[in-house]
Design goal:
Immunoglobulin-like, 29% strand, globular, 470 residues, binds copper (II) ion
Length: 470
Amino acid sequence: MNSRRHFLGGAGAIAAAVGAATVGRAALAGLPEPVHQDSADTMPPLQPGQGRPYRPVLTLNGWTLPWRMNQGVKEFHLVAEPVVREMAPGFKAHLWGYNGQSPGPTIEVVEGDRVRIFVTNRLPEHTSVHWHGQRVPNGMDGVSGLTQAPIQPGSTWVYEFVARRPGTFMYHPHADEMTQMAMGMMGLWVTHPRARHPLIDEVDRDFCFLLNAYDIDPGSFAPKTSTMLDFNLWSWNSRVFPGIDSLNVRQGDRVRIRVGNLTMTNHPIHLHGHEFCVTGTDGGPVPKAGRWPEVTTDVAVGQMRQIEFIADEEGDWAIHCHKSHHTMNAMGHGLPSLIGVDQSALAARIQDLIPDYMAMGGRGMADMGRMRMPLPDNTLPMMTGQGPFGGVEMGGMFSVLKVRKDQAPGDHRDPGWFSHPPGTQAHEVARAPAEPSRQDAAGGSSMPLASPSGHEVEVQVRKPGGHAHH
Ligand SMILES: [Cu+2]
C-alpha cells in the first residue's frame, strides 16, 4: 500500500514514470480517506501536526485540506463533485467543487515536500487538475489532452511532485475549463518556505481567498456556463457580501492577504485606512527594490497578488473590489437608469400584471436596498449588508478588515462593530452653513465657446450594461 507500484497496474506503471496516472482498483482501498466539508464558515487555520512546522493560512469562508504522511510523502485526496454552496445566508447555489465545497480546500505544504494528490472524479464529465504556477514535471501539469488523458467520471488518478518553490498558487481543471471554472472548480495552494527567506517575512495574520464569478439568474440555482463577461455574482471564495467573513486582526499585526483571480476580468482590490506593498505574485516573492506602496492593486485574470501591511489603524476598514458593479449582487445588473423618475405609481400598476416587476430607485440604487419588493425564491436582494449605521449598500466582492487593540494574538473571531472614540466620527452639523460663494457660472474669458448654439444640452447618464430607455 505504501509503495508507488501498488497504486498502478500494468500499463499504468509506465505512465507513472512520466506523469499523472490512473489508480488501480486494489490500491483504492489504501487511499487517504477523502475529507468532506459541510460548512461555508471560515475554518480556523489548520496547524501542521506533522512534517516541517509553519504558520498556516486562514482561508476566508474556506478550509485547509488535511493530509497524511506516508513514508515521508504528504498525501491528499481531492474529490471533484457537484456541491451545494451557500453563497450567503439564504442563498444556495448548485456548483461543482471539491470535497463538499466550492472553491475546494486550500492545500498547504512546505518547500521541498514530496506531495501526492489523489483526485477522484465524481462529476458527470471528465476533468483534470492543473497546478497553476508551480514547477512540476511536465506530465504532472494536468492539461487534459496535452500532458495526460482526462480523468473519466468514477475514476481516481494520482499526481506526485516536489513542491519546489515557496509561494501562493492555485489549482483548477484544465479540461472543459469554461464550464468547470464557471461552475466553481478551483482552489488555493500555499507552499511555505522551508526556512527563513530573505523576501518572505513572517506575518501575524495570513489570509487567502480566490476571486470568482457566477451568472445565476435570480430565482434559479445553477450558474449559466456559457457566460463570457456579463456575470452577475462577483464573489470571494464563492461567497458574496454580506456572506463574506471579516478579516479580524490585532492592532500592530503584520498582515498578509493572498488574492488569486480565476474570473474572466480584472479586479482592483482596494483597502481602506492603510497602505500595503505587493510582496509576491504567483511568480514568486517580489524583490524588495521592486515594491512600492499602494492602496489598490489590480489582480488580472489568472494572477495572484500577495499584499502586506502593518494594521496600525484601529477601526472597521472596508476592503473591496473597486469596480462598483462588482459590489452589487444579482438584482443590480442590467437595469435601465431611472434616476429622476418617480415610478411608485407606475411600478404598482405593472406589478398587477407582472408580480415580480421591480423598478430601479428613482433617486439611485440605494432605494433598492429599502424597497420591500417581492423577490423570487433563492435570490439575494442586491445590497443587503447592514452595518451599525444602516445599509452598507454593498454586495458581492466586499468585506471588512477589523483592527482592534484588544484582539488576542491568533484570535480570528469577529470582535463586532468598532466603537469610535468621541470626536473621531463624521456627523451632521447642527446648523446649515451660509450659502457658499460660487465662481461665476458663465465661465472665464480664457475659454469662451467657439460658436454659442443658443440652447443647452442635457444628457442622461446610463448605467453600463443597462438598456436604452428613452
Ligand atoms: Cu471586481
